[in-house]
């Protein structure tokens, strides 16, 4: 058994090594034809840039980093030159037409937003590599080995870990799960991955190509970085779902929940949207609700849905109904868990890949205060951003109160959508725990939480006076809720942030906690009396 | 003169659940000056979670139910140090280091210590119980050089110790005096159920085996034990888990009356005015509700603390525990008990026992033969709702009522398989009844009585 595990680990590492290593193989040779097409498609007007690039790039061979930085340097130089001209003409005055023409020649290459759209298509079209020529093999050597290896590593635990029962043994002693070197390395790996994915996809053309065949067979389109990400996401969730099954097999709530959340990711966030594209429909994730899906009301999305006939119309209406009606009604009956730990993709990754990190969440009162500020601020930001977007959409004005709508959108996209949700939210699993995004940043979670806190049947019931204050529940609450603080007083747990993962109840060694949907009356007890004792009606004053 | 000096000074020895509960509730109800003393750790932690620290489920900081700022904010002064001597004439405590502190009211919540029954070799190195944080540290210290541990005494702490060692790949031999695990408390079938489960985890479980002697090596560390039947078992660690007794050696020299524990009346008062005792170390002259005079569990410590705080804050209140309850976990199987289920049936008692075919889940109900009223519940592998069980037992509900409403008491997580129908079927067969299990009903569950 141990041997199988070790073989699995080695295969998995080899798979990852191939995947990462593929970044460095092959070369990028820009032919005249690809270059011209690219200039055309991008609408590049700077003759300075075109001339220089023709000389220095076309027909030559580079690696990805060289080509990418070369393009950026040339673009920046040309942009500077054009801006110098503009400045000069501005001082001379009366040359507005010329100035405007010159503006359109400036190429924008900020790394955080415009860089990738500029370079990525050219690199993609120019790559020559063994990955490109052996795409199925490449898929097998990367994804295939990593998945098979991962499963071989996990499944023997079914026997090795002994009889069914949750064993969190050594989590706080192991370097990978206790913020040791192992954890830091993992986090660094995740963070680099997210930076490349979000901002420098031009550097990971080969890894993207490993998924090309799968993309072609699903949507008929070549793989983009987002397709690759989707496939990684689904694969990781599947492998770690198996880990969940092994670990929590005594607990049917966990088994079913894991299955459902995996299903929603694979079917709703991956297969269905890709197939929609195959049938010339918009890429659409039916479960991704605004404001988590912050681009839902962006003009390009609305236009694309409006352009797509009845189905598009249905998608538009469904998106609104989902947020306005379905979510609050479901939260009333089931708690926010129905979304956050049963349906949502971010939640799904947190509950699978993130499970070994759940105990790292911070439980202090201070952080709880911080959480309440920041998550509601993000919600406000999302609402304001969307408001501005809709205002622009309907009024046709590009600015609101003097600020460009596009600027607000790109701030949001960069800071919240990329840095917070991806780099910090997932990249920092091994440091901050698995729900940092869901707890501090997700505007949808904030909205669901408000409903859960004030109008819902959901609560975690505390079983009379059975709590021994051991702290397992608080430790394993991924949302950093100090569950014990409630349980030891005999209070039910009603907290806006609780995602109903059920792990507190699962790890409680005394059967104290139960997630329940029950009548609202008596949900929040103000003056609990720990039962077990007759007669003493304690005068419970508020305690800090 | 400042106000604090006028305030009555309540000094509590022991920062366990009993002492801390008392302190917190005194603070809720008064402005008295409160000082809590402990020689063990600076802050209150949950002793019940010691095993999880060892197994790496938690760190020490996670076992502290309150953050460190809590004490200052609530004006509860903490002193770390051992009290050597109590001077009841001068109302003063003397510490090991010679310091002296005065009190107006003294509360003794000094807990227990592991039993040692005078076995030869019981004071060797790597021979110890598991009670204090220092015990945990010492277990940790010896673990890396331990291949086999022998645990003596089949109770709750023993099984926790076994699980701890196994989590580190250390083999365990477990000596139990009775013919089954925890035989003094558990009825036969439950004892057997748990014994099977312990063996399933590869514990070398020996029944009717007692410790004769512990043999040391040249460094004074245990190297083997000899059982009463003469068998020698090699080991590098001996765990003594044959119960605990009140930790009152330093009190015996004072004029506070003691027996096995510090003797108290139902107000938790000792024989000396203004000195009280509670929790593990307190022994009733006569238990207020007729249970055992010495009850050393978490819950009773907490309930006594809540009660005593009332008395200290001038609302003199007798300790009146309600129905007995307790719970534990043996490896993967949870156990809960409500009311009284003794290891042997009493004369007036009858029982109903259901066990799942896989032998890891059971429900045991004990009731009064003549009235059919429920007296006690034991469950393994099924969680029960405390409030409902309490209502049944205090309300003397009869077995028909219990069977019909069994689903109300289920507290297992959602989607768990429920066994009430099976259970009621078996009950019907055994008792020639034709009861039907009613659907769970929130109104009944949340009814006020
Ligand atoms: C491993 C383990 C698991 C357990 N599991 C459970 C369980 O699951 N359920 C349950 O109900 N019970 C359980 N118990 C029992 C429960 O923990 C005790 O009943 C409870 O902790 C007693 O609390 P207490 O406040 O009375 O005493 P303690 O917690 O023992 O506190 C007494 C404190 O006083 C200090 N002290 C003593 N003398 C002096 C002195 N002279 N000077 C200064 N300080 C002093 C001690 O160092 C200690 O810190 C368990 C016990 C152990 C050891
Ligand atoms: S309180 Fe419990 S159910 Fe809620 S998020 Fe925390 S661990 Fe999950
Ligand atoms: S895990 Fe259970 S017993 Fe432990 S503190 Fe939480 S509710 Fe209490």
Keywords:
heterodimer; A: mainly alpha; two-stranded antiparallel sheet; disordered C terminus; B: 449 residues; FAD/NAD(P)-binding domain; Enolase-like, domain 1; 3 domains; five-stranded parallel sheet; binds flavin-adenine dinucleotide; binds iron/sulfur cluster
CATH architecture of the largest domain in chain B: 3-Layer(bba) Sandwich
State the major sheet of chain B. 5 strands, parallel
Identify every distinct bound molecule in the structure, by name, code or SMILES: flavin-adenine dinucleotide, iron/sulfur cluster
The radius of gyration over CA of chain B amounts to 24 Å
Mean pLDDT of chain B: 96
Outline the biggest β-sheet of chain A.
3 strands, antiparallel
Query: Which structural class do you get from the secondary structure elements of chain B?
Result: alpha/beta
Strand order of the largest sheet of chain A: 2-1-3
Number of helices of chain B: 12
Low-pLDDT ranges of chain A: 533-544
Our count of helices of chain A gives 26
How many structural domains in the coordinates of chain B?
3
The top-level CATH class of the largest domain in chain B is: Alpha Beta
Write the layout of secondary structure elements.
The complex is a heterodimer of chains A (about 550) and B (about 450).
Chain A: H1 2-21, E1 27-29, H2 32-42, H3 47-56, E2 61-62, H4 64-92, H5 96-103, H6 115-126, E3 127-128, H7 130-133, H8 135-154, H9 157-160, H10 181-199, H11 205-209, H12 212-218, H13 225-247, H14 252-278, H15 299-306, H16 309-334, H17 337-340, H18 345-352, H19 365-395, E4 399-400, E5 403-404, H20 405-424, H21 429-432, H22 436-441, H23 443-454, E6 458-462, H24 472-475, H25 483-487, H26 503-507, E7 513-517
Antiparallel strand pairs in A: 1-2, 1-3, 4-5, 6-7
Chain B: H1 3-6, E1 9-13, H2 17-29, E2 33-38, H3 50-54, H4 69-73, E3 76-80, E4 83-87, E5 92-95, E6 100-102, E7 105-108, E8 112-114, E9 127-128, H5 133-143, E10 148-152, H6 156-167, E11 171-175, H7 188-200, E12 204-206, E13 211-216, E14 222-227, E15 232-234, E16 237-240, E17 244-246, E18 262-264, E19 275-277, E20 282-284, H8 298-312, E21 325-330, E22 333-339, E23 349-355, E24 362-368, E25 374-380, H9 386-394, H10 399-404, H11 420-431, H12 442-445
Parallel strand pairs in B: 1-2, 1-7, 2-3, 7-19, 9-16, 10-11, 10-16, 11-12, 18-20
Antiparallel strand pairs in B: 4-5, 5-6, 8-17, 13-14, 14-15, 21-22, 22-25, 23-24, 24-25
Helix pairs in contact in B: 2-8
The complex binds flavin-adenine dinucleotide and iron/sulfur cluster (2 copies).
């Amino acid at each position: 058994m141990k041997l199988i595990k070790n073989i699995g680990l080695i295969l998995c590492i080899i798979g990852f090594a191939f995947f990462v290593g593929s970044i460095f193989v092959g070369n990028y040779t820009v032919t005249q034809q690809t270059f011209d097409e690219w200039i055309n498609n991008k609408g590049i007007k700077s003759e300075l840039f075109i001339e220089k690039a023709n000389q220095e790039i076309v027909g030559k061979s580079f690696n990805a980093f060289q080509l990418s930085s070369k393009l950026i340097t040339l673009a920046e130089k040309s942009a500077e030159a054009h801006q110098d001209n503009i400045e000069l003409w501005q001082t001379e005055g009366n040359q507005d037409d010329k100035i405007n023409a010159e503006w359109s020649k400036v190429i924008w290459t900020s790394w955080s937003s415009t860089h990738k759209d500029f370079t990525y298509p050219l690199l993609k079209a120019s790559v020559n590599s063994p990955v490109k020529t052996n795409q199925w093999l490449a898929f097998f050597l990367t994804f295939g080995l990593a998945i098979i290896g991962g499963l071989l590593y996990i499944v023997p635990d079914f026997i090795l870990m002994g009889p069914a029962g949750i064993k969190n043994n050594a989590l706080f002693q192991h370097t990978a799960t206790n913020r040791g070197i192992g954890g830091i390395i993992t986090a660094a790996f995740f963070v680099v991955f997210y930076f490349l994915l979000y901002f420098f996809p031009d550097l990971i053309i080969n890894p993207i190509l490993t998924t090309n065949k799968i993309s072609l067979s699903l949507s008929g389109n070549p793989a983009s970085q987002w397709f690759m990400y989707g496939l990684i996401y689904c694969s990781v969730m599947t492998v770690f779902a198996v880990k969940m099954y092994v670990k929590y097999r005594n607990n049917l709530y966990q088994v079913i929940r894991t299955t459902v959340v995996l299903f929603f990711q694979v079917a709703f966030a991956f297969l269905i949207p890709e197939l929609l594209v195959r049938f010339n429909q918009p890429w659409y994730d039916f479960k991704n609700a605004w404001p988590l899906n912050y681009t839902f009301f962006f003009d390009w999305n609305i236009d694309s849905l409006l352009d797509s006939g009845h189905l598009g119309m249905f998608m538009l209406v469904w998106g609104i109904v989902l947020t306005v009606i379905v979510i609050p009604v479901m939260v009333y009956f089931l708690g926010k868990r129905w979304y956050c730990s049963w349906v949502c993709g971010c939640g799904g990754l947190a509950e699978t890949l993130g499970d070994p990190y759940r105990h790292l969440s911070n439980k202090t009162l201070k952080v709880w205060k911080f959480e309440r500020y920041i998550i509601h601020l993000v919600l406000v930001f999302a609402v304001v951003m969307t408001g501005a977007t809709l205002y622009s959409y309907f009024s046709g004005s590009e600015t609101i109160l003097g600020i460009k709508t596009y600027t607000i959108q790109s701030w949001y996209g960069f800071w919240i959508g990329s840095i917070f949700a991806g780099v910090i939210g997932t990249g920092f699993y091994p440091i901050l725990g698995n729900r940092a995004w869901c707890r501090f940043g997700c505007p949808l979670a904030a909205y669901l939480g408000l409903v859960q806190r004030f109008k819902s049947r959901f609560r975690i019931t505390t079983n009379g006076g059975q709590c021994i204050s051991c702290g397992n529940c608080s430790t394993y609450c991924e949302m950093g809720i100090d569950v014990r603080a409630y349980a030891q007083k005999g209070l039910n747990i009603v907290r806006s942030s609780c995602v109903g993962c059920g792990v507190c109840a699962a790890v409680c060694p005394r059967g104290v906690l139960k997630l329940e949907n029950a009548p609202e009356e008596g949900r929040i007890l103000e003056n609990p009396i720990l039962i077990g004792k007759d007669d003493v009606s304690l005068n419970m004053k508020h305690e800090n | 003169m400042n106000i604090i000096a006028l305030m009555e000074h309540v000094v509590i020895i022991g920062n366990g659940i009993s002492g801390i509960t008392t302190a917190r509730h005194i603070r809720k109800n008064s402005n008295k000056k409160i000082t809590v003393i402990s020689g063990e750790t600076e802050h209150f932690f949950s002793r019940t979670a010691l095993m999880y620290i060892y197994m790496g489920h938690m760190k020490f900081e996670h076992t502290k139910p309150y953050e460190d700022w809590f004490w200052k904010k609530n004006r509860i002064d903490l002193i770390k140090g051992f009290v050597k001597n109590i001077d009841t004439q001068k109302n003063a405590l003397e510490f090991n280091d010679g310091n002296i502190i005065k009190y107006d009211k003294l509360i003794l919540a000094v807990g227990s210590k592991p039993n040692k029954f005078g076995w030869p070799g019981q004071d060797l190195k790597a021979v110890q119980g598991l009670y204090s944080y220092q015990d945990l540290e010492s277990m940790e210290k010896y673990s890396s050089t331990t291949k086999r541990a022998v645990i003596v005494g089949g109770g709750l702490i023993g099984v926790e110790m076994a699980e701890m060692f196994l989590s580190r790949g250390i083999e365990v031999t477990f000596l139990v005096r009775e013919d089954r695990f925890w035989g003094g408390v558990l009825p036969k079938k439950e004892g057997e159920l748990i014994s099977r489960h312990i063996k399933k985890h590869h514990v070398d479980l020996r029944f009717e085996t007692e410790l004769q002697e512990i043999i040391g090596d040249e460094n004074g560390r245990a190297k083997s034990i000899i059982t009463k039947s003469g068998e020698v078992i090699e080991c590098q660690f001996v765990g003594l888990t044959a119960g605990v007794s009140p930790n009152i050696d330093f009190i015996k020299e004072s004029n506070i009356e003691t027996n096995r524990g510090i003797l108290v009346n139902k107000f938790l008062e000792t024989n000396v005015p203004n000195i009280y005792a509670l929790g593990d170390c307190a022994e009733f002259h006569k238990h207020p509700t007729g249970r055992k005079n010495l009850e050393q569990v978490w819950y009773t410590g907490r309930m006594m603390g809540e009660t005593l705080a009332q008395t200290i804050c001038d609302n003199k209140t007798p300790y009146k525990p309600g129905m007995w309850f307790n719970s534990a976990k043996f490896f993967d199987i949870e156990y809960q008990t409500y009311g009284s289920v003794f290891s042997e049936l009493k004369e007036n008692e009858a029982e109903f026992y259901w066990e799942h075919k896989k032998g890891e889940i059971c429900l045991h109900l004990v009731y009064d033969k003549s009235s059919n009223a429920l007296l006690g519940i034991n469950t393994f592998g099924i969680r029960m709702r405390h409030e409902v069980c309490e209502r049944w037992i205090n309300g003397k509900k009869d077995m028909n009522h219990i069977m019909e409403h069994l689903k109300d008491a289920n507290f297992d997580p959602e989607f768990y398989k429920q066994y009430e129908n099976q259970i009621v079927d078996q009950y019907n067969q055994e008792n020639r009844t034709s009861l039907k299990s009613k659907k769970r009903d929130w109104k009944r569950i949340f009814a006020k009585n």
